[in-house]
Amino acid sequence: MExxxxxxxxxxLLLTGDADLWRIIFTSLICSVIALLLISPAAIALGFLxxxxxxxxxxxxxxxxxxLLSFPTVVVGLVLYMLLSRQGPFGFLKLLFTPEAIIxxxxxxxxxxxxxxxxxxxxxxxxxxYETARSLGASPLRSALTTLFEVRFGVMAAVFNGFxxxxxxxxxxxxxxxxxxxxxRNIPTAIALETSKGEFAQGIALGFVLIAVAIGINAAxxxxxxxxxxx
Length: 231
What we know:
Number of strands: 0
Order of helices and strands: HHHHHHHHHHH
Strand content: under 5%
Distance between the termini: 42 Å
CATH superfamily: MetI-like
Structural class: mainly alpha
CATH topology: MetI-like fold
Radius of gyration: 20 Å
């Protein structure tokens, strides 16, 4: 029953509203949400354009974006670290080891997820949707929005999967955030730190939060799909 003691303490920390624990949770969630809000419009637009427009190098671009899906996040963090360090080209911004740096890293990680999911959704849609909208006098933007609305569940899946990817990301967050208590320490980096010290209670509590987030994301997507008549 040795496992029960840290597990019980983990629930105690969650239920009693431990300030440090909930600060970590808030930092993780707010950085993830802001990153998705900032990158989603551009990524979704690019996914749509790649799906609908033929241009030289299109296939190579698709391959590149798909390859970025499996790009190690710690390497993303390393590249961003070099760009934001004092010797880097953007060092003057003094963003390294700040929540803003984590948000930028999350945006880079979520970007290919959003593009690829949107691309697949639009390619799977009936091409007559866009053509009909254009023939009825709709502008290219309005026609694009009509098409995206028709594949909205695919786009939702893109956003939800992008959120799930970044909220559980640890490599990039440590590289550019520094895991600073009260500032850049988030759920994955706190789990890594606490378990490495042999203090499992907070790590278990934060693990439960990540599990709850994952279940909540999938439940929300299923509910939205059900509302759309896909039960």
